[in-house]
Amino acid sequence: MSVEEKLIQRLESAVTRLEALSATGFRSGGSVGTGDDTVVLDPSIIAFDDLRSEFLGKVTTVAEKIGGKVLDITKIVEKAFSAQRELLIKIKETKKPDNSGLVEFLKPLNDAINQATTMTEGRPDFFNHLKSAADSLSALAWIAYTGKDCGLSMPIAHVEESWQMAEFYNNKILVEFKNKDANHVEWAKALKELYLPGLRDYVKSHYPLGPVWSATGKAAVSAPSKAPSPSAPAPPAPPPASLFSSESPQASSSRPKQGMAAVFDEINSGKPVTSGLRKVTDDMKAKNRADRTGVVNAGEKEARMSSPCISKTGPAKLELQMGRKWVVENQVGEKNLVIDDCDAKQSVYVYGCKNSVLQIKGKVNNITIDKCTKMGVVFAVSYELQEKLTKY
């Protein structure tokens, strides 16, 4: 699109807004409207409209040529960007809420993202298109940035990191349809441009430090809640938010550390390494025991083999969390565990498994095995790693 065409689009957009405002009449004193009308004319909102018109409009145009599920997921992307626009307008008129209020405030955007994620379940046709679009929408969570302790990267970095997750599937589209259908290739390229440079440059220009809430605006409206009667049972706990969580990062940092983190903390504490060990007396040594024999009772051997060294304290899991971390937990006797939808940006954490085998089809960033017994992990070794293993 040439510079002249972009300029014409922006002028047409501005004229449309002015015509809409003129229908309601100008306010006294020469100001063009108040409240929502004034906010709509804010430069950041105008720039967001330009972003949708230029970049999102191109994605939609190509999706209409393809149709089917690709068009369906593109409409959800449109819905999510529309939800973000409405939130940007409300933020300029709303006081900054607390964590729980922020989750409720951002619910319309979260609902659209969840809707896109649901479309990827079961690996339907055009899975790479659906997954690329659904993962890309996590970039819109930059609007939840409230400071360095909120658990998110800075807005610009968050947009870039989120697209890196989606780009794995986006590149698969480019490879699959390179010599088959130019529309699919164009759609994949247009989707990337929506975020890089589109959304990234928008955030960089208007919200590099996150959204700016109103100091004098109205309080965010939370969902209405009714006080339960004394005889009524307690309501069930609400489900966890899939994208925006109200839990403070300090809450997780206050929990006792486990695994290697606890080991290093103990070493760095300066306490003697053997301070927690029991002293072995002479009568406890095997050579001085009266009942010492070289025969193992068959019943004792069977009991040892049947008693598990791990207690299954939680449900079995094999799931991808936050698009970044595969979690495999409490699997017992499962020989056919498979992770086949992974990429080099993700990690695998295996915990509390026994007598099981996990196969990882694809490259991942790292694999951690914690408190497992007889747990096999099958994965491909890169040439660089194989060279290091051979050397050492």
UniProtKB/TrEMBL annotation:
It comes from the Eukaryota. Residues 230-241 have a biased composition (Pro residues). InterPro entries: Adenylate_cyclase-assoc_CAP, Adenylate_cyclase-assoc_CAP_C, Adenylate_cyclase-assoc_CAP_N, C-CAP_CF_C-like, CAP/MinC_C, CAP_C_sf, CAP_CS_N, CAP_N. GO terms for biological process: actin filament organization; cAMP-mediated signaling. Residues 242-254 have a biased composition (Low complexity). One of its GO terms (molecular function) is actin binding. Residues 221-258 are annotated as: Disordered. One of its GO terms (cellular component) is cytoplasm. Pfam families: CAP_C, CAP_N, CAP_N-CM. Residues 315-392 form the C-CAP/cofactor C-like domain. Belongs to the CAP family. This is Adenylyl cyclase-associated protein. It comes from Nicotiana attenuata.
